[in-house]
């Protein structure tokens, strides 16, 4: 299907409601959050917990960081949440994740079509760029787009049960996510994460 | 994997990293790392991760550390420029980090396109708070990589090992 014939993307869902629905029981995952919106989404879901490492800089690092964690801990489900702007900055990381294809890596891109943190400038995904298609092109076998209510259950199932690296594109309204005051110290949150991993080992 | 006399030191790089517990090797290919890359690909006990850009390897190393694994990023020195912003996470987060750079734009370089980054490597590493270890002789390789691993994985430093063009030779143009 040519691009022009495709249905227009729907940026209608509320991230504060749908991201928690896609995650489900948060204790079952280790989380890596990209900077800005998705870091807050995950901080709110985990109550800034020790199974979560969220960034406030290093834009574009989330997918590769999740890949490293997934390779190091094949016994855990690793859940990366990243935004459209962050993923676009390092979209090649999808190709790297794809060829490694760790079965425990799941990637959620929360796409609001904008650079929300810097004043809601339009991102490329509001102008015809489809990040699920880029994930498919990168070779990721399990992908889907969630943009309507009736797709949420299937998205949650893929993120929970996929036995291979999967990619879910969640299109949401261009609005801020949950307001959550999280620990933004990259060193103390690193130590917190490591200590929790050791305590459970 | 057979090493010729000329590239036996490259096998020492790999063997020394592995002896120090590195289980995740990431790289953008370069001739100076050819042997280490091939050995990692053939080794069932390690992950060998081909990157699309060097900065992915910085984030990958941080994620591997969170999972308790040691990793090494193998790259040409020109790739250092692609990594700079991600180094802020390494130093700000006090992540142990090890990269092995095969130098270009260094001693005897004949390609003017390589000189700009070559000259910038040491100032960049200094600016980003790295410990830098330079290797110029084949018989220094094992001791230098051991020292770098100790500073990275025991002292928790960001460490760059430079395989200088005195060691690897300059490509002919």
Give an account of the 3D structure.
- The complex is a heterodimer of chains A (201) and B (173).
- Chain A is of the alpha/beta class.
- Chain A has a single domain, classed as 3-Layer(aba) Sandwich (Rossmann fold), CATH 3.40.50.
- Chain A is 38% helix and 18% strand.
- Chain A has helices at residues 15-23, 37-46, 62-72, 84-89, 93-100, 131-138, 152-161, 186-200, and strands at 29-33, 52-54, 77-83, 105-111, 114-115, 121-122, 142-146, 166-171.
- In chain A, the strands form 2 sheets. Chain A has a 6-stranded parallel sheet, with helices on both faces.
- Chain B has a single domain (8-150), classed as Thiamin diphosphate (ThDP)-binding fold, Pyr/PP domains (Rossmann fold, 3-Layer(aba) Sandwich).
- In chain B, strands 2-1-3-4-6-5 form a 6-stranded parallel sheet, with helices on both faces.
- The longest helix of chain B has 16 residues, at 112-127.
- Chains A and B meet through helix 3, helix 5 and helix 8 of A and strand 2, helix 3 and helix 4 of B.
- State the helix count of chain A: 8
Query: By helix and strand content of chain B, what is the structural category?
Result: alpha/beta
Which radius of gyration of chain B do the C-alpha atoms yield?
15 Å
N-to-C order of helices and strands of chain A: HEHEHEHHEEEHEHEH
Query: What kind of sheet is the major sheet of chain B?
Result: 6 strands, parallel
Which CATH-level-2 architecture of chain A?
3-Layer(aba) Sandwich
Query: CATH superfamily assignment of chain B?
Result: Thiamin diphosphate (ThDP)-binding fold, Pyr/PP domains
| Content of β-strand of chain A | 15-25%
Give the overall silhouette of chain B.
globular
Total E-strand runs of chain B: 6
What structural category characterises the helix and strand content of chain A? alpha/beta
Distance between the termini of chain B: 29 Å
Low-confidence stretches of chain B: none
Give the overall average pLDDT of chain A. 94
The secondary-structure element order of chain B is HEHEHEHEHEHEH
Order of strands in the sheet with the most strands of chain B? 2-1-3-4-6-5
Number of extended strands of chain A? 8
